[in-house]
Amino acid sequence: MTTIAEFTAPTQAFPLGSLFETLPEASVELERLVPANRVVFPYFWVWDADPTEIEGAIGDHPDLECVRLVDELDGGGLFRAHWNESDDGIVAAVDETDLSILSANGTSDGWSFEVRAETNDSLAAFQEFCTENDVRLSLSRISSVTEMHVGGRYNLTPQQREALTLAYEEGYYDHPREATLEEIATQVGITRPSLSSRLRRGSRNLIENTLIHRGGPK
User: Regarding beta strands 76-83 and 43-47, do their DSSP bridges make them parallel or antiparallel, or are they unpaired?
Assistant: First the structure.
């Protein structure tokens, strides 16, 4: 049975966490991609920080060969990470157990990961790998795909539906806005980057299952 699990981890549990030591206001969002040639986490976004400072803030890490700025936007930048082969850590755990990363966000308060496991055995193997290699992860939520897709034909997870509904009710989509991401995130009990990720993925699912798949007006 396919399972969706959410984990939290301390800042230093993931190699990119070192940047928060010098850039505590920054936030990181790993780009969701289907891995090719066993490459894990090839791209990541850094927000609320000067992109030119990121490489120096990350510093040397045995799991990272290099980090390169790919694109720059207002308020952040997209980076490509080249990883060294490693036998431990979260990168190795994902690679070894064939999990799919649905979302991953980091701030100075820690990391949140949402993963999909095709079997309970693969999820158990991931947790066992982390335990044996002293990777501190805390399981915060676990659901079956059936439970996660209560959004029905719009393919929304409960978390995405909650975020979109609350943002609408609180006036986040009004002009001018009546609520900020920080205020809504506090109500939900998650970080601002995590909320932003849920809103973006929820909006994508809505568009994909209405305007695109349903042949809406062009």
Answer: antiparallel
The b/e string for 1-14 (b: 16+ C-beta within 10 A; e otherwise) is eebbbbbbbebebb
With contact defined as beta carbons under 8 Å apart, do 49 and 76 qualify? yes
Amino acid at 113: F
Closest to 135 (Cα-Cα) out of 91, 97, 98: 91
For the chain, what is the radius of gyration of the CA atoms?
A: 18
Pairing of strands 110-117, 100-107: antiparallel
- pTM for this one? 0.67
Question: pLDDT tens-digit profile of 116-140?
Answer: 888 888 888 988 988 988 888 888 8
**What is the torsion angle, in degrees rounded to the nearest 10, for the CA atoms of residue 191, residue 139, residue 109 and residue 59?**
-120
Sign of CA dihedral 36, 41, 42, 46: positive
Q: What is the pLDDT of residue 134?
A: 87
Report whether 113 contacts 4 (CB < 8 A).
no
First-to-last CA distance in the chain? Answer: 38
CB 172 within 8 A of CB 181: yes
Chain centroid to Cα 115, Å, comes to 9
d(CA 59, CA 192) in angstroms, rounded, equals 25
Which residues of the chain fall short of a pLDDT of 50? Answer: 34-38, 149-151, 213-218
Other residues' Cβ atoms within 10 Å of the Cβ of residue 122: 18
pLDDT tens digits, 189-215: 887 877 888 898 888 878 877 777 444
